[in-house]
Each structure stands twice: as structure tokens, then as C-alpha cells.
Design a protein that fits this description.
This protein is α/β, with parallel strands linked by helices and 601 residues long. It is 37% helix and 14% strand. It folds into two domains: 329 residues, no CATH class; 174 residues, 3-Layer(bba) Sandwich (Glucose Oxidase, domain 1), CATH 3.50.30. The chain contains 23 helices and 16 strands.
């Protein structure tokens, strides 16, 4: 075991000892009560199975047959979730064939950040994670279930499902993906079209044609953003069938994997011999493995928030410093857009997650001794499924990468570190993703230009005011201000300035998306502006340094002598449902603590 990996794992466990034990005691009490259907009043139980057929009613009348909850994030607007329309019926059939029952316990909201980018709805995006957690708890609160299958893929949805599932940590949980759409317009061409539109070189019709050629069919978007990072995390934490994350929805293997997930969920309920509740799977070692997977594959910076919130739901205290320390020893093994030109289909064909897990295990860079839905040990997740004669067979991933421009082993990694830095200085703490940023752009010292919104930045760009070296400081974008929207709309404009030869960086208390790209971006600055953070005291032309090489975040100004400007946030807190979320903005924690409304779980 690598000493840093071992040290960080032990540090997380020790830091979490008291809260973790309280959590384990809570889920043990719930587990000791056992399945509760036989102890329900006849009226309660009759309501819970009124819509079932005669056979399922007979099975549910006692506690001898497992009943699986299906918690679904289906809607047919999200391309990634549209395939879930048929999953409940398939799951019910697979469960019935095994002599069990499955019921849709509830649905959770699922918004598409791709639709809301740069729009008012994006201000609800981060908070939707905690709404999903609450909705999951409502679904499971009927207390009819012995285990659960979770149908979710995209950005806030899987983290929300995870938080909700961990609140019912005595129940086994299996996550069921639907797979990515097939490859469309190459990501490089899509990015060029966006920059050309931002520069006024192509019109709306040309841009829409390019975007539609990229996002073109049911399935997850194929770039390596938060959605596909979610799928990676589920395998690294042992909650999803090995090798199934990136099997396309139209592949016949996809349906067989859904059947297999149902059977695996049944196998690990308390009514069998292999009871494996999710609360015992997600421990300090599993959380450390998740961080390592994120770093090794160049995953979404959103998970520097989500993983902390997920860990907290299991009584585990994860800190940004843990990310930073692990990043120093975890090599970058992939080049998937935005960190390269390949997409997840190319990555899967080159060897995929099983290859990455095996390489890291062999190098002592992962915790092997963990619980998973497949049993003890992470080595089972070095395999991948295939169909033979209509049945799934499990085989080993290739010993060598099928495409070294996309995927490499530890011995010839793309970079020695994990492509993420935690910056500290007189501006507070921030996260930087360096894996897509060229070496010459990883340290920028330049005059600040301060904006209070993306639209302010866009207007200044279109007026030709930004053709110079600058650090674009976008403030009042944190969770307590306006829900912490992603600021991905800025990327094409900043990219144009960098292409012109200017030294450019972004500094913000907001987020970038999982598609964070080639421009140096210090994001999620904590404390945020509305909570008195130093970022709110920066003024135009202050010299700001964003230095990923030295992990430094500094402004050359006497901030103590300044008072932060008072900014009217009304326009960002009204309309498009945002007024309903004031209770979230009032309660939300800081970014480095997971930006969660749940103070303690």
C-alpha cells in the first residue's frame, strides 16, 4: 500500500471515529428490527400492496420474500434518463422470476444542467441534490423494503440518491446505470463551434447544428463530466456491477446487466446469507478509493463538493486537504474530454474502469480490503462483462491499453499527479483542476476585473474591454448567495482570450461544470463573498495570483482596510422557483464542507 494512501485513509477514519460509530449504531438499530411488513397493521400493508397482482400480494403478506424498492430519476427530457422508462418493468420481471417482488417506491427530480447552463434554473441545480436526498428518504419511508435499486446517472442525481440511501444505511443498495449515447460530433469540433459562436464567427443555426450532432440520442452525454464521473465513483465504491457503467443503452448487454443488478440486490438482503447494507460498504476506505478514482481519471471538480456531502451522510469527515494530499501521489491515467479528445466510449473500448482499477490496485494505490455489492475485495471490479449465448460472462480487462492516447497504466501515466490542486492564501481556499490546463497556463498573475454575474462578464467581453491579461473575478456565486450555479457559460469567452495570447484565469466562489477546460480556474472559493469572504473585497486592477504550481491564491492588496460591497441579490433569488429555495440558501454550509443543508446526518 502506498504510504500516502494508507495515511490518508487512516486519517479520515480517525477524524471520523465518533460520528461514524454513531452512524453505525443508528443503522444497526434499524437492521435489528428486521423486515417490518409482518408487523404492519393490516390497513398499512393493504395500502402498500393494493395495486399488486395476486401473486405479489401473497408474497408480501409475510417477510419471507424480499421486496426491492425502485427509486427512479426517470424523465424523458434528460437523454441519460430516458432509457429508464422500461427499467421498472424489467426489474419487476427479474425479481418475480427469482420469487421476489419489486415496487417503484418513488421518483426523484432530475434536472439537466446542460439545459439550464447560464439560465435562471441553474441556480436550483446544486440544491436539487439535497431535494433528491429528501425525496429518496420519502420513497423509502414506507418501510416496506429489504433492499433498493437506484436508477440515476447525472450530475446532482447520483449524489442525492447516495445521501438518501445512506440515511437508510441498513438497506442494501445497488445502483443501476443506463449507459452513454454513442459517439457523435467529436468534442474538439464542438468546443471550436462554441468558441466560434462566442467570437461572432458562426450564428445560432450553426451552433445548434454542432450541439445537436454532439448530443443526439438517448444515453448519457459522452464527455467526462459529472454524470460519467458519477458512474466511475459507483464502481470504485463497489455499488454498481463491474464494467457496466459505459455500456450503451442499445447494447443487448445493457438489459442483461439490469437483470443481473436485480438479482445481486436480492442476494445481499438480510433475508439471505450475504447481507451487505450500503452503510457498511461506504466507509473511510471506500471514500478514499472514490477520491483516488476521481483523481486518476481526471473527473469532475463538482465531486470535491459531492463526495464530502456523501461521506458526511455515512458519518465520515472528508476534507479538501485529503484530495490535495492524494493528488500528489495518484497518477493521471486517462485522457477523456475535456482532458483530451476521446469520449467515454473510446475510454471503455480502450480498457475502461476495470483497467484503471487493476492498475491502481497492482501499484498499491487503492484500498483492496473493502466491502462491495459483489462481496469482499475490490479486485472483482477489474473484470468486465460480455454476452455469450445470451448470458453474461465475466472476463478480465486487457493487460495493456487498447489505445494509449486515451488510457495508460501507472508505469507510463500521462502525468505523475492527479490533476487537481487545493489552493490556499489570503483569499481563502479554492479548488483547481489542472488536468486539462497546459503547463504554461497553470500560474497566472494579472490585474483583476471584478464581475457580479456571468452576464456582466459577457457584456464586457462583447464590448472589447477584456483584450488583455486578466484574472476574471466572478463573485456572489456561492451556495448562500444564489445556489452556486455552474459558470460554464464563461468557458468559450475565456478560451478565446487565451487563444489570443493573453494570460487569463478565473477566480470565483461559484462552480464550473464537469467540463472544466483549458483555462486556469480557481473555483468554489471559501469563504464565499456573501459570508464575508475576501473574494468580495477584491477591486478592479488588484494584482491577483492563481498559482496551481505552488498551490497559492493571493491578492496584493490590504483587504483588512476594505469593506465588501453590498450587492443586491434579489434578482438572483426570485423567479423560476428560486424564491422557494430561500430556506436552503439560509441554511447551506460552506463549499469545503459539501455545500449541504444537512448540518449533521
Amino acid at each position: 500500500m502506498n504510504p500516502v494512501v494508507e495515511q490518508v485513509t487512516q486519517r479520515i477514519a480517525e477524524r471520523s471515529r465518533e460520528r461514524r460509530q454513531q452512524y453505525l449504531n443508528k443503522i444497526k438499530r434499524a437492521a435489528d428490527e428486521g423486515p417490518t411488513r409482518s408487523s404492519m397493521s393490516c390497513s398499512n400493508l393493504a395500502h402498500g400492496m393494493a395495486a399488486c397482482g395476486p401473486l405479489d400480494k401473497d408474497r408480501l403478506a409475510g417477510d419471507k420474500v424480499p421486496n426491492l424498492a425502485i427509486v427512479t430519476a426517470y424523465n424523458d427530457m434528460l437523454s441519460a434518463h430516458q432509457p429508464y422508462a422500461t427499467f421498472p418493468e424489467r426489474i419487476r420481471h427479474a425479481a418475480a422470476q427469482a420469487g421476489a417482488v419489486a415496487q417503484v417506491a418513488g421518483g426523484v427530480p432530475a434536472m439537466c444542467d446542460g439545459v439550464t447552463q447560464g439560465r435562471d434554473g441553474m441556480d436550483l441545480s446544486l440544491f436539487s441534490r439535497d431535494v433528491i436526498a429528501l425525496s429518496t428518504a420519502v420513497a423509502l419511508s414506507h418501510d416496506m423494503f429489504d433492499g433498493a435499486l437506484y436508477l440515476g446517472i447525472c450530475d446532482k442525481i447520483v449524489p442525492g440518491l447516495m445521501i438518501g440511501a445512506l440515511s437508510f444505511g441498513h438497506l442494501p443498495a445497488v445502483f443501476v446505470p443506463a449507459g452513454p449515447m454513442q459517439s457523435g460530433l467529436p468534442n474538439k469540433e464542438k468546443a471550436l463551434a462554441r468558441e466560434a459562436h462566442a467570437a461572432g464567427e458562426i450564428g445560432r443555426e450553426g451552433l445548434l447544428a454542432a450541439e445537436s450532432a454532439s448530443y443526439h440520442s438517448p444515453g448519457t452525454c459522452t464527455f467526462y463530466g459529472t454524470a460519467n464521473s458519477n458512474q466511475m465513483l459507483m464502481e470504485f465504491m463497489g455499488l454498481q456491477l463491474p464494467g457496466g457503467s459505459f455500456v450503451n443503452p442499445t447494447d443487448p448487454l445493457r438489459d442483461k446487466l439490469t437483470d443481473a443488478a436485480t438479482l445481486q440486490a436480492l442476494a445481499i438482503t438480510a433475508l439471505g446469507n450475504h447481507y451487505t447494507p450500503i452503510g457498511e460498504i461506504i466507509d473511510a476506505a471506500a471514500i478514499t478509493n472514490a477520491v483516488i478514482g476521481l483523481l486518476a481519471t481526471g473527473g469532475s471538480t463538482n465531486h470535491t463538493i459531492h463526495l464530502i456531502a456523501i461521506a458526511a451522510a455515512a458519518g465520515i469527515s472528508l476534507d479538501w486537504q485529503d484530495f490535495g494530499d492524494l493528488a500528489a501521489v495518484i497518477p493521471s491515467l486517462t485522457r477523456i474530454y475535456p482532458n483530451g479528445q476521446a469520449d467515454v466510449n473510446h475510454f471503455h473500448a480502450a480498457g475502461g474502469l476495470g483497467f484503471v482499477i487493476r492498475e491502481l490496485l497492482d501499484a498499491g494505490l487503492l484500498n483492496q480490503d473493502v466491502n462491495t455489492i459483489m462481496g469482499p475485495g475490490l479486485d472483482r471490479f477489474t473484470q468486465r462483462p460480455a454476452l455469450e449465448g445470451g448470458d453474461i460472462v465475466w472476463g478480465n480487462t486487457p493487460l495493456k491499453s487498447e489505445d494509449r492516447s486515451v488510457l495508460r497504466g501507472v508505469s507510463d501515466a500521462f502525468e505523475a499527479d492527479g490533476g487537481m490542486k487545493i489552493l490556499t492564501g489570503n483569499l481563502g481556499r479554492a479548488v483547481v483542476k489542472t488536468s486539462a490546463v497546459s503547463t504554461q497556463h497553470r500560474s497566472v498573475t494579472a490585474p483583476a476585473r471584478v464581475f457580479r454575474s456571468q452576464s456582466e462578464f459577457t457584456k464586457a467581453f462583447e464590448a472589447g474591454e477584456l483584450d488583455r491579461d486578466l484574472v476574471a473575478v466572478v463573485t456572489h456565486q456561492g451556495p448562500a448567495a444564489n445556489g452556486m450555479p455552474e459558470l460554464h457559460k464563461l468557458s468559450p469567452y475565456l478560451g478565446i482570450l487565451q487563444n489570443k495570447g493573453f494570460q487569463v484565469a478565473l477566480l470565483t466562489d461559484g462552480r464550473m461544470s464537469g467540463a472544466s477546460g483549458k483555462v486556469l480556474a480557481a473555483i468554489q472559493v471559501t469563504p464565499e463573498a456573501v459570508q464575508g469572504g475576501a473574494i468580495g473585497k477584491i477591486q478592479d486592477d488588484d494584482m491577483v495570483t492563481v498559482d496551481a504550481n505552488q498551490s497559492s491564491l493571493q491578492v496584493e492588496a490590504n483587504l483588512d482596510s476594505r469593506t465588501a460591497d453590498s450587492v443586491d441579490m434579489t434578482a438572483s433569488q426570485q423567479g423560476c422557483g428560486r424564491e422557494l429555495f430561500q430556506v436552503f440558501r439560509d441554511r447551506v454550509g460552506i463549499s469545503s464542507a459539501g455545500a449541504s443543508i444537512f448540518a449533521e446526518i
